[in-house]
Write a structure and sequence with these properties.
By secondary structure, the chain is α/β, with parallel strands linked by helices. It has 4 domains: about 5-165, no CATH class; about 205-525, 3-Layer(aba) Sandwich (Rossmann fold); about 560-805, 3-Layer(aba) Sandwich (Rossmann fold); about 815-960, Multifunctional 2-oxoglutarate metabolism enzyme, C-terminal domain (Rossmann fold, 3-Layer(aba) Sandwich), CATH 3.40.50. The strands form 5 sheets. It has an 8-stranded mixed beta sheet with strand order 3-9-10-8-7-4-6-5. A 7-stranded mixed beta sheet has the order 14-11-15-16-18-17-22, with helices on both faces. Strand 5 (about 310-315) and strand 6 (about 320-325) form a beta hairpin. GO terms for molecular function: oxoglutarate dehydrogenase (succinyl-transferring) activity; thiamine pyrophosphate binding.
Amino acid sequence: MSDSLRALLDSTPLGAGNAPYIESLYEQFLADPASVEPKWRDYFAGLGKGGASDVAHGPIRDALAKRAYSIGAPAAAAPATASVSSDAAAKQGAVSRLVQVYSNRGHLVADIDPLGLMKRPVPEVLELSHFGLSNADLETEFLTGSRVDAIPKRMKLKDIVAQLKQIYCGTIGAEFAHVSNSTERLWLQNRFQEGRVTNRFSAEEKKTFLRHLTAAEGLERYLATKYPAQKRFSLEGGDALVPLVDDLIQQGGLRGIEEMVIGMAHRGRLNLLVNVVGKSPQKLFSEFEGHYDVNHMQGSGDVKYHKGFSTDIKTPAGNVHVAMAFNPSHLEVVNPVVEGSVRARQQRRSDTKGDKVMPLLIHGDAAFAGQGVVMETLQMSQVRGFYTGGTVHVIINNQVGFTISKPEDARSTMYCSDVAKMIEAPIFHVNGDDPEAVAFVARLALDYRMTFHKDVVIDLVCYRRLGHNESDEPAATQPVMYSKIRAQKTPRQIYADRLVAEKVIAMADADAMVDQYRREMDEGKSQAKQSLGLIGNKHTVDWTKYHDVDLTETVNTGVRIEQLRELATKLTTLPSNLSLHRQVAKIVQDREKMTAGQLPLDWGFAENLAYASLLTEGYEVRLIGQDSGRGTFFHRHAVWHDQNSEDNYVPLQHLSPSQPRFDVYDSFLSEEAVLGFEYGFSTTEPNSLTIWEGQFGDFVNGAQVIIDQFISSGEAKWGRLCGLTLMLPHGYEGQGPEHSSARLERFLQLCAEQNMQVCVPSTPAQMFHMLRRQMKQSFRKPLVIMSPKSLLRHKLSVSQLDDLTHGSFRTVIDEVDDIQASKVTRVVFCSGKVYFDLLDSRRGDGLHNVAIVRVEQLYPFPAEEYAAIVKKYSNAKEIVWCQEEPQNQGAWYQIRHRLQESLSKDHQLLYAGRAPAAAPATGIAQMHQEQQQALVDAALRSTSTEESLRHTTRLKAANK
C-alpha cells in the first residue's frame, strides 16, 4: 500500500466492504475530477503515472482489503460514533455497488422480448439482500454517484431502485461493462442514463414512427393478398426495422453522413427496398409477376429478395446516397463486401476517419451467432488496411433462426450478439414492439459510432410472424411460440393504441394511415417519401463505359525504356537514414544491375515496375495479402523495413508528389472476409488495380463462397462489374497436398460467358504485361493468376528490361528453341512450371521432334492462337496436354474439348500428367520426384494416353 493511500484511508472510516463505493468515486473522478473531494482527487490523480484513464480498480480494492485485514473488523474496535459512521459508509458503499451492478447486469431482467417467452429470472446480485441492504433502508437517502444533471446527487433508496429499473430494466437492455476504455464506457453510461430519464419524442416524430410501422405492415399484407403463393421473406414481427433504418439515415444526414452502404440478407429486404430506399412498387410487382424481357436480359438475373438498389435520400442537412448491396442466400457473407465498398467510397472522398461514409449491416440472429465470416469481419474493424470508421450492426432477432426450437441449440452464449464482445462493441438489446426505444438506441448507436468510430450493435428482439418463408408451417417446431404469436397484436396495432392513449393521434387517423397506404400501393406510388431517385454527385462513378466493349481486344502494354529506367531508379533509391537487412540490400543492389542490363530481370522487380508504371498513368494500386509487403517467397519487397527502428519505406509511394494511391497491407489471417472486402472495393472503384494475394494458393478454398457467389457470378446475376485480381501461388515442388495447388480446376469450372480471366504466366515480362493489361483494357473482369513459387528464382524463368518495352501479354507462347517445324511429330501444350521441367529434359536428351508450347491464358481459351500452332506443325499428329496436377484436377478436363476442336481425325490427343487422385499432391518427396519425372517422360515420349498414365499409376501400385 502506498503511503498516500494509507494516509487517506486512515483519515476515513472506510474498510474493505467499501471498495464498491471507492470504485464509484473513481469512475466519478474519471468523468469529472472536480466532482470528488480534494483528498480523493489528489490520490486518484496519482494513480497510473499521472491518472491514466484506464487504470484498473485493483489497487483500490487491494489497499482496502489489506487495511481491513490489518485492523480487523472496525465495529469491534472503534468507538460508537465511529461505528455509526462506519455502518453508514458501508451502507453507502453497498448502494454504490448496487448502482454499478444494475449498470452491468440490469440487461438480464430487461423487458426486451415482445412475446414474453424469454426466461428472465432476477439474479441474486440484483437483490437488496445481496448487498446487506433491506426494506428498512428504503427511506434512507444515499449518494447516487450520478454524473448527469437529470439524476439527483442524493435520493432515497426506494427511488434509486425505481430509477435503476427504469433505466436498465425497461424495454432496452444495455451491455457496455465489457468496454475496457473508461472514456467510452463512462460516455455510454452517462448518455444512456440521461437519455432513459429525459428523452422524449415529439408528437410529429411519434406519428412518423407510426407511419413507418404502417408501411412495414401494409406492404407485407398487400403482397400476401396479391401474391399469396410467392416467397417474400416477410418482415412481420420485426416491423420496427423500417423506422429504425429510416431514422438512422435521417439522423446520419444531420451528423454529416453523405453515403451509407447497407448490407443485409433476404428477410425484410423487400420491405426496406420499397418503404425506405425507394424502389418502385410497380417494379416490385413486375418481378413478382415475372415480367422480364428475356430477349434483352444479360446473364442469369436473380430472385427479387437478393437484389440491391441505389438512391439518394433527402434529409434536413442534405442528401444521403444510400446503396443496398446485392447479396445471395449466404447471409452474412455480404458483410465484408459492404465494408470493402465503404472503404473505396471513403478513399474517393479522402474520408480517413469515416465521417462521410458509413456501413450499416443488418443481420439475422442465428447467422450472426453462427457464421464465421461475422467474426472475421468484426476483426477487421480497427485493422489499418480495412478500417471504415465503425459499423452500425442491427440484428433482426426473431429468436428462432430457421426452424430451431430452442435458442440454446443455436449457440453457446446467452445472446446471439455476444460474439461482438470480442471487439468490445457496445450492445443494445431492444424490444421490437417499442418503436420509441428502438429509435432511441438507433440514435445512441449512431452517436457512439460517430464519436468513437467503432462498431456498435443493436439487437432488435422481435419475432417472425410467419415461417421461414410464407409456405412454411412454423408451429410444427415452435408450438408454444406460435400460439403466443397468433394472439399477439402487431407492432403497428400496439403502437397505435399507445398513441391513442397518449392523445397523440385519434384511432380514426391511425386507421386512415392504413387505408392511405393500401390506396397508394394500388396506384403504384413510391412509399419512401424522402427518396429522390439516383441523382449522383461528383463522387459518383460512371461504369457504363465498361459495358458493351470488345472483349477480344489486344492492348499494347509496353512502356518506353527511358521511363522504365527512371522508375527503376526511383524503386532502388534508398533514403539516407534507412538501414536495410543485408539480404534485402543485396536484392536492391541486384535490381540496380537489372536496370543497367547486367542481370536478367526477375519476377519481383518486374512486378514492382508494373505497379510503378500504372501509378504514373493515373491508376491506383491496392495489394492485400497475408505477407504481401515482403512477399511470401521473399521476392517482392514493396516495403523496406529499417533495421534500427520500426520505420519503413515504400518506394512505390514516392514516385511523384501527385501520384495516385499505392496501398500494400499485410492482412490478418483470414481468407473469406478479406477476399470479400477486396471484392467490394473493386466493384466500387474501377480505377484501382485491386489485388488479393493468397499466402499459398491452396488457402483460397477458405474463401470459396466469395468466389462462387460474387466473383464468378456477380456480373451475370446482378450486372456488377469487378476488376479484382487474385494472385494464387501454384506449382508442384513437393511441398505436399496443402502447398501445391490453387485448385485451378475449380476456377475453370466456373468460367463461362466471358465472366473472368484465368492466366498462368511463365516469365517476369508476362507478369508485367498481364498486370498492366488488367487496367489498360476497356472492360473490368476478374483476373485469376496461378502465380509462381519456385519460378521466382528459376534460372530460365527470367526476362530482359527490353521485354517490357513492347507488345502485350501473350496468351500462347510458341517454341523458343531452334526446332524446324517440319520435323516436329509431337506438340506438347502445357502451362506453368512444368514447362521448364519439359524444356530441361528435352534439351538434355537432344529431342528435336517435340515442340513445347505454353498456354498462358486458359480462359478465355485462346482458340485461334492454339489452332495456328497446330496448323504450323502440320506433320505433328500427336498433340499432348501435359500438367503437373492429377488428371481429375488441373486444366485437363476443363479444356479437353477446346484442345480437340482444332484437331482433325488424323490427330491423336494425349494426356500426360499425374493419375487421378483424391488429394492434390503427395506429401512424400521421393514419390513427388518420381511422379514428376514420369509425367515429363510421358509428355515427351509416350505414344498413347494409356501409356502416359502408366508412368504414374505404377507409382501408386508400388507404393501400396
